[in-house]
Amino acid sequence: MSASISTAGTGKRVAVYPGSFDPVTCGHLDIIRRAAKQFDHLIVAVLNNTSKKPLFSVDERKQLLAEVTQDLPNVSIDSFRDLLVNFIRAKEAHVIVRGIRSVTDFEYELQMASTNHQLDEDIETIFMMTNPKYSYLSSSIVKEIAMFHGNVQDLVPPEVQQALIAKYKPE
Ligand code: ADP
């Protein structure tokens, strides 16, 4: 990896994988595992977006992410509500990791990457292609299935499946 995306101070290659993770799916986890192999430290950062109404609170999403990544020593979990580039600078990271599932993802991601590059040209966005197994998978689809008590066993880690069952337990 080029020295230009190393962290200036420590020389460590730090990347941030930002997202809503409401909740984390097998598709996200696949990206996390693959990205963790490419960097010294990967920070998975939950976006605390006040304009969206999430199913899981930021703390719940962080907790689930922490549980499903506990075997990955160079992965840590954080959250942010500021501009992403400000968060990246504060963490002394230089790389944003995003996943791409489709052409639709690509168009949105290209816009985001260009905007972030405009805001800070030292920050590079790196895209990882989805594992084809998970190309259709999104947090929204998982929530829709779980809401109607469908089986999400192959779509999310077991901890997340339990959390979804608890959320949608009939009163
Ligand atoms: P956001 O609201 O920022 O898109 P998401 O939690 O939906 O947050 O997604 C975070 C990132 O993970 C995005 O880059 C998205 O494209 C990627 N992603 C989501 N689901 C998958 C999947 N099944 N395979 C690969 N990447 C995915």
Secondary structure blueprint with pairings:
Layout: E1 14-19, H1 26-38, E2 41-47, H2 58-68, E3 75-80, H3 84-90, E4 95-100, H4 103-119, E5 124-129, H5 139-147, H6 158-167
Parallel strand pairs: 1-2, 1-4, 2-3, 4-5
This protein binds adenosine-5'-diphosphate (ADP).
Keyphrases for this structure?
171 residues; alpha/beta; Rossmann fold; 5-stranded parallel β-sheet; 6 helices; 5 strands; globular; disordered N terminus; binds adenosine-5'-diphosphate
Number of spatially distinct domains: 1
What strand line-up does the widest sheet have? Answer: 3-2-1-4-5
CATH topology category name:
Rossmann fold
The ligands found in this model are: adenosine-5'-diphosphate
User: What is the string of SSEs from the N terminus onward?
Assistant: EHEHEHEHEHH
Specify the CATH homologous superfamily.
HUPs
Question: How would you sum up this structure, described in words?
Answer:
One of its GO terms (cellular component) is cytoplasm. Belongs to the bacterial CoaD family. Its main location: cytoplasm. One of its GO terms (molecular function) is pantetheine-phosphate adenylyltransferase activity. The protein has helices at 26-38, 58-68, 84-90, 103-119, 139-147, 158-167, and strands at 14-19, 41-47, 75-80, 95-100, 124-129. The protein is an alpha/beta fold and 171 residues long. Mean pLDDT is 93; it is low at 1-6. The chain has a five-stranded parallel beta sheet with strand order 3-2-1-4-5, with helices on both faces. Helix content is 39%, strand content 18%. It has one domain: 3-Layer(aba) Sandwich (Rossmann fold), CATH 3.40.50.620. Adenosine-5'-diphosphate binds next to helix 1 and strand 4.
